[in-house]
Amino acid sequence: ARSVLDGIFEIENLKFKDLKSKLELRFGEGHLAQIYYTQFTNRKQRNSEDLASLGADLER
Fold first, then answer.
1. Which of 9, 22, 24, 37 has its CA 20 to 30 A from that of 30?
2. Rounded CA gap, 29 and 24, in Å?
3. CA trace torsion 27, 33, 35, 38 (10° rounding)
4. Are 25 and 31 spatial neighbours (Cβ–Cβ below 8 Å)?
């Protein structure tokens, strides 16, 4: 978190909403949403995999 704050030059003028957004981008999972969506849509059932295992893997 400190390195994110060090990269913000005018921290005194930064609104809480903007600071929260920058920290969420760095530490939150919001930036991974597109990656997770792509993995989810491209996931296919393997030959030896039963449907329950596929479902459990997709839930993670």
1. 9
2. 8
3. 170
4. yes
CB 10 within 8 A of CB 18: no
Structure token pair of residue 13? 């003028």
Domain ranges within the chain, ordered by starting residue: 2-59
38: region left, alpha or beta (phi > 0 left; psi from -120 to 50 alpha):
alpha
| Burial track 38-50 (b if 16+ CB lie within 10 A, e otherwise) | eeeeeeeeeeeee
The reported pTM is: 0.43
Q: What is the pLDDT of residues 37-46, one digit of tens each?
A: 888 899 999 9
Predicted local confidence at residue 48, as pLDDT: 93
From 31, 29, 57, select the one nearest 42 (Cα to Cα).
57
